[in-house]
Amino acid sequence: MSKSNVAATNRKAFRDYEILESWECGIELRGSEVKSLREGRVNLGDGFARIDQGQVWLYNTHITPYAQASYLNTEAVRVRRLLLHKGQIKKLTIQLTQKGLTLIPLKMYFNDRGFAKIEIALCKGKKTYDKREDVKRREQNLSMRRMMKNIRK
């Protein structure tokens, strides 16, 4: 998967959640939503997924209506079905019954065959002290690399 195929990433998810496991799945889109997706007019920021009646549904994902589609446009924020195998859905259902775990969309992209795909992850929310610890670790790694760079000179 190349960088040019990625339509949107959910940076907020990487900051606010600890990612335990991720899956690639298809997404059921209507009409002009694919063209909007190709233009990168997607916001995954507040998105989440739920399992309802044996199917996975994506909520609060904003796909801006395509300007040239006129009256054929769909709603920007609507519930969209995610396409997974039954075995994967059963596994997810079992894991989601645990306390504090949610399904979050990480990125939306087009695969090599041109199909829209979405990467969802089973996540656990981070506490504020966990976030501070991540920032501290990142700064330490950065300063370590700077020191190593100066030593090599």
Largest sheet: 7 strands, antiparallel
What portion of residues is helical?
Answer: 25-40%
**Rough shape?**
globular
Q: Which structural class should the secondary elements be placed in?
A: alpha+beta
Q: Quote the average pLDDT.
A: 85
CATH superfamily: Small protein B
- Provide the succession of SSEs: EHEHEEEEEHEEH
DSSP summary, beta strand count: 9
Q: What name does the CATH topology carry?
A: Small Protein B, Chain: A
How many whole angstroms does the radius of gyration measure?
Answer: 18 Å
Can you describe this structure?
- The structure is a single chain.
- By secondary structure, this protein is α+β, with helices and mostly antiparallel strands.
- Helices cover 31% and strands 35% of the residues.
- The strands form two sheets. The protein has a seven-stranded antiparallel beta sheet.
- Strand 8 (101-110) and strand 9 form a beta hairpin.
- The relative contact order is 0.23.
Write the layout of secondary structure elements.
Blueprint: E1 6-9, H1 11-16, E2 17-27, H2 33-38, E3 42-43, E4 48-52, E5 55-59, E6 62-63, E7 80-83, H3 86-96, E8 101-110, E9 116-125, H4 128-152
Antiparallel strand pairs: 1-8, 2-7, 2-9, 3-6, 4-5, 5-7, 8-9
